[in-house]
Design a protein that fits this description.
The complex is a heterotrimer of chains A (281), B (218) and C (214). The two termini of chain A are 21 Å apart. Chain A has 281 residues and is of the alpha+beta class. Chain A has helices spanning 98-105, 111-114, 218-236, 258-269, and strands at 11-15, 24-28, 31-37, 43-47, 55-58, 61-64, 85-88, 92-94, 131-135, 140-150, 161-171, 174-180, 188-199, 202-211, 244-245, 276-277. The radius of gyration of chain B is 18 Å and the shape is globular. Helix content of chain B is 49%, strand content 7%. Chain B has two domains: 2-80, Glutaredoxin (3-Layer(aba) Sandwich), CATH 3.40.30.10; 81-191, Up-down Bundle (Glutathione S-transferase Yfyf (Class Pi), Chain A, domain 2), CATH 1.20.1050. In chain B, α3 (66-77) packs across α6 (158-168) and α4 (87-116) packs parallel to α6. With 214 residues, chain C is an alpha+beta fold. The radius of gyration of chain C is 19 Å and the shape is elongated. Classes of the chains: A alpha+beta (281), B alpha+beta (218), C alpha+beta (214). Chains B and C meet through α5 and α7 of B and β2, β5, β12 and α2 of C.
């Protein structure tokens, strides 16, 4: 099985709040698994052969692995701040590489065309320079000082603002976005994309949020995030090739794509190739 | 008028779209269909025992069928959208409204399965979806031969609004729209209507807005 | 599709299926194309893939004389060169950023793609007018069997029972493109009748194809 180094990572496999004793069947990197809650309320993940997989319950989701993760699941300190509201956005299945799903989440140049009049609008299409690094200590991709003008940046925003962002990739199929928080301008709203690779060209996407927003009803928050993701889905299902090319040649980045360039380089460096293709075809 | 609504529901979108085109303001009450299954919860079941959305409430009128909601909005504000100019037109509207219910089952069922993990026999749903799209393509050809750009008339009616969402979102269920040139042109005509609004999965027609920075051509 | 020694022509779409300012997905022997018509009426076949992040250009939009990708708005001229990258409005895109463009001819209400380097023009089908375009899940042989006749040198089947109907066939990657045509002098009732007849033929051809596949 083509897992490479990605076998020993943590992946989301379900919402903790939706576990049942009956269990629900899904897949992780081609392996059939069942996710359930035992008599004591603990999450359990079992393969078709009856092997119990390691478990973590964090950020509203159940996480598991087919291998032996060396590291703990990444930390999101903002999730522990008092006053945060957590939003389980709900799973959406997409016929695309899990790596393509993450790369799309890191991209802002598509906002005026795909999230028109919500996250961006013509003629405000310019992507100004921003900073990107692979932080060696934590070994994560970080993009900071990312700015974009948005007509309606969040449910809690009352008009157009220039939103500031930070993007972070702490695991090959997870991304964390830190976004200007209108009610508390010195804090960041946290929006995440946790991607479960079912196969190299099929994934379940589990968006999740930790926000400072006491006003907006929960369902509105869920619907806003589902709207954004559903707008991306028809793009993701129409990219060729399906697998993310990690070698240059097939696809042409520009300066606006610094985060995705770093992400692809980081994936290649770590041999995170499930959902990727290596030789330009 | 209060609409119990889910932003990703094509049936709810039919009502939102009709209201937007007619300039009717709806009071939207969002329903956590997914992941919360709120439509099956006690409050909404009390209003609609069928457990479906959309639900439209106007005074003591409660409607639970999207076709009825379209008819109600049109009858109230713009009866020409009902398409009743002749017996043939009336019949065509009814024919395509009934057809639209089949789309909810086949195209809609395929979409729920592929996207939101709902149970279903996906191969059968997709085959039925293809058959329905071919029926629509043939119907649009014949309408074109009669000099009519829309399903029941030369102008759009509630029949077009009823069929449009599930058709436009067929690819969500793994059913390609590539082989249907007339469906493509019909969708474009609908997407170009004054007051048209999108839903997630249906992009804006950017070509309708002139290029803000016209470039020199090579 | 007669081969003239250097190449031939394959039908790709009906002209009427491509109004000015639109783009549609289509297919040629070179591969999938984004077939588009500029505002001035010029038809172009661009490779159906934006070199930025691989998005299908057939999902894009046409403004003026350029085709733009729906993902990030990268715009391409009829020559195939990228002329604008909205994320960098002041950048003149390098010439290396381009999509391949194929030769297209428009004749008799049909858009034709060159296969190889044909020395001649597309086939003359002046006695016929095209009505609509269909996709058949079956090969030419299955369609010939259902129609009860074989294709001629121009790729056209004349139906024995309805000789005023012609089916112009073009094998594509996974199916056969069928352009329904009728004699120029037929009336409106015949046009609708022809459409219903070809639907029956498609049903029979696909049934036969399924039987053979099992």
């Amino acid at each position: 099985m083509k897992g490479g180094a990605m076998m020993d990572e943590w992946y989301p496999v379900g919402l903790f709040s939706q576990l049942s004793e009956k269990g629900s069947k899904t897949w992780l990197m081609g392996e059939a698994i069942e996710v359930a809650r035992d008599r004591h309320g603990n999450a359990q993940v079992i393969t078709a052969e009856g092997r119990a997989l390691p478990i973590r319950v964090r950020y509203g989701h159940v996480w598991s692995s087919l291998g032996n993760p060396e590291k703990e699941l990444f930390a999101i300190p903002e999730a522990d701040q008092p006053g945060r509201r957590f939003v389980d956005v709900g799973v959406v299945r997409v016929r695309c590489s899990p790596l393509r799903a993450v790369e799309n989440f890191l991209d802002i140049a598509h906002f005026p065309f795909v999230h028109t009049d919500i996250l961006g609008a013509e003629p405000h299409t310019e992507v100004e320079n921003y900073k990107v690094e692979i932080r060696e200590g934590v070994d994560e991709v970080w993009a900071t000082q990312v700015k974009f003008y948005q007509p309606q940046a969040a449910k809690s925003a009352t008009g157009g603002i220039t939103t500031e962002y930070m993007y972070r990739v702490p695991a090959p199929t997870c991304s964390v976005l830190y976004k200007t928080c209108p009610p508390r301008p010195s804090e960041w709203d946290v929006i995440t994309l946790f991607v479960q690779p079912l196969a190299e060209d099929l994934c379940d996407v589990w968006p999740w949020m930790a926000l400072f927003d006491d006003e907006t009803p929960m369902t509105d928050l869920i619907h806003f995030q589902q709207t954004i993701f559903l707008q991306d889905r028809s793009i993701l299902e129409n990219q060729i090739p399906a697998l993310l090319p990690l070698d240059p040649g097939m696809e042409i980045p520009t300066r606006a794509d610094l985060t995705s360039i770093a992400y692809r380089r980081w994936l290649k460096r770590h041999n995170y190739t499930y959902g990727a293709q290596l030789v330009a075809q | 008028m209060k609409l119990y609504d889910y932003v990703l529901s094509p049936s709810c979108y039919k009502v939102r779209l009709m209201a937007a085109i007619l300039g009717i303001k709806l009071d939207i009450r969002p329903v956590d269909f997914h992941p919360g299954a709120e439509h099956r919860g006690p409050e909404l079941l009390a209003l609609n025992p069928a457990g479906s959305i959309p639900i439209l409430e106007d005074g003591d009128l409660v409607l639970t069928e999207s076709s009825a909601m379209l008819a109600y909005l049109a009858a109230n504000s713009a009866p020409e959208w009902l398409g009743q100019d002749s017996p043939q037109e009336t019949a065509r509207v009814q024919q395509w409204l009934s057809f639209s219910h089949r789309l909810t089952a086949n195209l809609g069922g395929a979409r729920l399965h592929e996207m939101l993990l709902r149970p279903g026999d996906i191969k059968t749903l997709q085959a039925q979806g293809v058959a329905a799209l071919r029926e629509l393509e043939a119907g649009l050809f014949e309408q074109g031969e009669r000099g009519m750009q829309f399903l029941a008339a030369s102008r759009a009616t509630i029949a077009d609004i009823a069929c449009f969402p599930y058709v436009a979102l067929a690819p969500d269920g793994g059913i390609s729209l590539d082989p249907y040139p007339l469906i493509r042109l019909w969708m474009r005509a609908i997407r170009s209507l004054p007051g048209f609004i999108e839903m997630p999965g249906i992009h804006r027609l950017h070509e309708l807005k002139p290029d803000p920075h016209p470039a020199g051509e090579a | 599709m007669p081969f003239d020694g250097a190449g031939s022509w394959a039908p790709v779409a009906l002209s009427s299926d491509l109004p000015p300012g639109t783009v549609i997905p289509a297919w040629t022997s070179v591969g999938p194309i984004a077939l588009w018509r500029s505002q001035s009426g010029r038809a172009t076949a661009s490779s159906d893939r934006c070199p930025h992040r691989g998005m299908r250009l057939s999902h894009g939009f046409v403004r003026g004389e350029a085709l733009s990708c729906i993902y990030h708005g990268w715009s391409y001229a009829v020559s195939g060169g990228c002329i604008r990258i909205p994320a960098h409005p002041d950048l003149v895109p390098p010439e290396t950023i381009r999509v391949a463009v194929q030769q297209i001819e428009e004749a008799g209400g049909i858009l034709w793609a060159a296969v190889g380097q044909p020395a001649t023009q597309p086939p003359q089908l002046d006695e016929l007018v095209p009505l609509r375009s269909l996709s058949v899940e079956g090969d030419v042989a299955a369609i010939e069997a259902a129609a009860g006749a074989k294709i001629d040198a121009r790729g056209l089947i004349r139906l024995p029972e309805f000789p005023w109907i012609g089916l112009l066939l073009a094998p594509q990657e996974k199916h056969t493109l069928l352009l329904l045509m009728i004699d120029r002098d037929r009336g409106p009732a015949d046009r609708i009748a022809a459409s219903r007849i070809v639907e029956s033929i498609r049903r029979a051809a696909e049934e036969r194809h399924r039987e053979i596949a099992e």
